[in-house]
Design brief:
Two copies of one chain form a homodimer. By secondary structure, chain A is an alpha+beta fold. The first copy, chain A, is built from 19 helices and 13 strands. The longest helix of chain A is centred in the middle third of the chain and has 37 residues. Chains A and B meet through helix 9, strand 12, helix 10, helix 11 and helix 12 of A and helix 9, strand 12, helix 10, helix 11 and helix 12 of B.
Chain lengths: 590, 590
């Protein structure tokens, strides 16, 4: 079973949900049109079908292996990575002046989806490099950019994020790694970092580690962290990697999934590092990188969901078993003919397309919020930032659900590793954990994005949804039905929001006890909203006689999401508003 | 991290939910009292903590291996199994006249939970043997019982169920395996059976396979299946295993979980088999066995949930990270202090205890329905049979959720295999698949248990819940709150039920499109009902001054279930009643 990039749906989302007219008009993207974007995605799609998708199984079986002080990936990975670099895929969404193709973020999101659907273990390497490029671009000196950006953008070098230590996971204030200033302006970085994705490997000529550490006398907690660039091989003035720096991989983890992605424990022993930006502002810079990474992890969720969906759909159409109820009792059927298998397949599709619409719409707003003029930035930034935790949490949590449905559709075969779908269930499980767990996203949403501006952005989000509902009212009965479901889900959001704003002041524990249900509610609502926008656009295209079957299906998928998924919002409202009392009841001894 | 059997909660369920006074008064159990039951469970608990729980990790890492024509389990399994037999644990819930301890079914359910919580891979062997014993007892000849029951009850021999073939999974009508009658009254059984749990191993002196096959000229489809007993070693008149029968293991599966449980492909080549019962009634006999096995799989779900819960609770109390919101900002906290971690832990507890209450209550009714006098049987059988698919589906689907929450609470460590909790997430995933997928349970519930008697039993189920609500109204404010939540969930059930009864007649595909949401709704309601009964009993005990802390916690757990889980019933109602239109919309090309 292979993988085909869902280019048609991606282009639909780009055309109708990503604010493409404004995005492509940004000065930064002066010469881009959608034909270029489509051509790039199609070529990437072919590359991934042919070269990357076949890596999944071997990567999962063999995994990354520590051999002496080197980390070895299955052989095919090196060849595929070399070709990935040759074709310039790492550069796709990076600026032209550092050697990039300069495509907008929404195209980058689609590319990230394709690559990670083909193989999440492979996709993690470029994903981390993207993050390092972003951080350097925003906070590096001109000299640092000159030296490091071009090889990173080309993919010849790769990047990593070094945050976690054994005692410092979600709580980065506990980081102990040290950086001692040296006479030449560099720093000696020492300490142990864990869970470093692609922290060690032989795919690239160099690895650029971005490391959180403390300078002598820095304040305690997260205000005393600085960010350092620590190359695996020290780089001379003309950019050639030379001496090995003293950062070593001491072990790699044996993991539930993404087994070909090496997760390293790195030991820094007075390794040469270079300060990025100013001292004690490391967490701030890292957050820039982390926000992009969080968004990308959401996209990985869409990716693994799409892959699981393609497998399940194909199996459901091939596997013959039983007679379909309500149809000819003498006729055997492929299992897709059974109403519940149909339900599972269509639920998977609704969740995949909902996640894609949410992430591609958010990509457009993120682009405008970072690259628009002052007015555009001011208008779009709050919404874009509001959407990031939703993309991360909705798409990652739903990926676990979708992968699990994929296993279920395969029945007993789903439990056999050779079938390949159990791997998606294992791979997907990291998504709600890394780059900030779902609970961390919930704190971000409730604390920073809702309470901090006393609900202003949240109310604007709700008003935008109400506008969509109003627009749907002028459409067909199906659109009106979707509007009604969306309205009910939005009412659950509004009621929860008021309760949370009121409660947080006096009883923050009660409010935050509902933070994850609120995140789930809001993410589900946001995805349903984007599918409702999609349905409206699709109906308009249908009326114009464009691809009427595809468009009719977009409408139905939105309706399935409305009937089967949006209904969960009301449960979450109840959990938030009545669930706090039992949750915090002292009779629960724990 | 070890495992401790939750004896206190089990005894609470036995005392208050399992109809213990009637059950223990059954003639079959004349001399049993609860002290014996408790003593047996406590001893089994110690045995499992000491000998079985440590097998999990090694069983998962090494797995079952095919070595030539033998299946080898990790060494420690053989020693543990021998001791299991020596201590007589296989015999716990089997009749005294075949060498059993003769404990009631509810005690058997608790024992199954303990064994499978300690290690599901180990627990599967006795579970299948239990099924073979049941089938033989019900349908075997006296001579067959004489020859085979005692060694099976002792555990010296083990049993298997052979249903599935490559083309015949959920659809057993497609079974092709053949049985040719021989002159001596035996049959020559030929064909390939797949997914045979413990189909080959060296733990026991003999393996008794129960095999579905077709005699020459038998009707097509499921009406032409007969059941055969095929021993691995042929047994002489005095019961001694002798010549090897021609059934061979040709391969074992490489699975997502329960890796130490060998899943065999068995090749029967004119193997000697003995007819059980009458020809062409095989499926009927197998269903008896399967019903018991379905119930037991539900209990396995409670088991793996409890194990995952114990791990997560322990980690959440140990791992220090961050400051708890709303408490002293200078004080670091174990993560249990964070409201969302508390929410996850308590949700896990509510789901575990809900599943245990549902299965132990059902065990009591099952016992009465099989061993009571005619009046008792007539009264209890419909309810007991109604509950079996609920136990299977609720406890197995929730096990996947609970195991996933357990991974989440561990954060990044949860994804590392050595932590041990990823194994529960992998092991649990088979539960909604084997012994009839969730969709098969849903067909059973809606087709056989609801539509067949035009909703009579379903309405009785609802009336029993209404009685519990009325009883709760005389209790504390907490009990009244639980009653209100239960009432809302029951209303969702009643409304769905009316709609399904009406719809099934004219549009069976629409009705069955909602079969799994209906199963989920009903299972959740049933578990919430049992916890509500538990809360009422606990409050009464509190008033009597008995174990007031434990009892207060039982009340709170029921309330958490009501606030956080029962609220899902309304979403399922909406899925059933409005979701059918979009689901069956022909615009959805698939």
């Amino acid at each position: 079973m292979t993988y085909e990039a869902p280019i048609r749906d991606m282009m639909f989302n780009l055309d109708h949900l990503s604010q493409w007219p404004q995005v492509s008009a940004l000065e930064k993207y002066g010469e881009i049109d959608r034909t270029d974007a489509r051509a790039a995605l199609e070529e990437l799609g072919r590359f991934c079908t042919d070269l990357i998708a076949p890596l999944s199984a071997v990567g999962d079986t063999t995994g990354a292996q520590l051999d002496g002080d080197k980390v070895v990936l299955p052989e095919a990975f090196a060849a595929a990575y070399a070709q990935f670099v040759d074709m310039g895929w790492q550069s796709l969404a990076h600026p032209v002046d550092h050697g990039g193709m300069g495509l907008p973020r929404v195209v980058g999101a689609a590319a990230t989806e394709i690559l990670n659907a083909a193989d999440m273990s492979f996709g993690l390497c470029p994903l981390l490099t993207d993050g390092a490029i972003d951080a350097l671009q925003l906070s590096g000196t001109e000299a640092q950019k000159e030296l490091y950006l071009r090889p990173l953008v080309s993919g010849r070098w790769t990047g990593t994020m070094n945050l976690t230590e054994p005692q410092a996971g979600s709580d980065l204030g506990r980081v102990r790694c040290k950086a001692e200033p040296r006479a030449d302006g560099s720093y000696g970085v020492s300490g142990t970092k864990i869970f470093i994705t692609y922290g060690a490997h032989e795919l690239s000529e160099n690895i650029i580690h971005l490391v959180l550490a403390r300078t002598p006398g820095a304040p305690e907690g997260h205000r005393g962290l600085s960010l350092f660039l620590v190359p695996k091989f020290l780089v001379d003035q003309d950019g050639t990697p030379g001496d090995r720096n003293s950062v070593n991989c001491v072990s790699i983890e044996h993991k539930l999934g993404v087994r070909a992605s090496p997760t390293a424990v790195l030991e820094y022993a007075d390794a040469t590092g270079y300060l990025i930006g100013e001292e004690n502002r490391g967490l701030e810079y890292m957050f820039t990188m982390m926000n992009a990474a969080r968004f990308a992890v959401g996209v990985q969720g869409v990716a693994v969901s799409e892959r699981a969906y393609q497998h399940a759909l194909s199996y459901a159409k091939e596997r013959v078993q039983g007679q379909a109820i309500g149809l000819d009792p003498d006729q055997t059927t492929a299992i897709i003919g059974h109403p519940d298998v149909r339900r599972m397949v269509l639920r998977m599709r609704a969740l995949v397309e909902g996640g894609r619409s949410l992430s591609m719409a958010a990509a457009g707003w993120l682009d405008l919020s970072q690259n628009g003029d002052d007015d555009i930035r001011a208008e779009t930034a709050p919404v874009a930032e509001f959407l990031v935790p939703l993309v991360k949490a909705f798409c990652s949590e739903r990926a676990v659900e979708v992968a699990s449905l994929g296993v279920q559709i395969h029945g007993g075969m789903g439990f056999i590793e050779e079938t390949g779908v159990a791997q998606f269930y294992r791979d997907a499980r990291i998504l709600p954990i890394y780059e900030g767990t779902t609970a961390i996203q919930a704190n971000d949403l409730l604390g920073r994005k809702v309470l901090r501006d006393t609900g202003q952005t949240a109310r604007r989000f709700s008003a935008m949804i109400a506008d969509t509902e109003a627009a749907l009212q002028t459409g067909s009965a199906k659109l009106q039905d979707i509007a009604a479901c969306l309205g009910e889900a939005r009412a659950a959001f509004d009621t929860s929001l008021s309760w949370l704003l009121e409660t947080a002041a006096n009883d923050p524990r009660a409010a935050f006890g509902g933070s994850v249900p609120f995140l789930n509610l809001t993410g589900t609502l946001a995805a349903g909203w984007q599918l409702a926008r999609a349905a409206r656009a699709a109906e308009a295209e249908q009326h114009r006689g464009n691809e009427t079957e595809f468009m009719a299906q977009k409408v139905t998928t939105a309706q399935i999401f409305a009937h089967h998924v949006l209904v969960e919002c009301e449960s979450d409202r109840a959990r938030i508003m009545t669930g706090a009392t039992s949750l915090l009841d002292e009779a629960s001894q724990i």
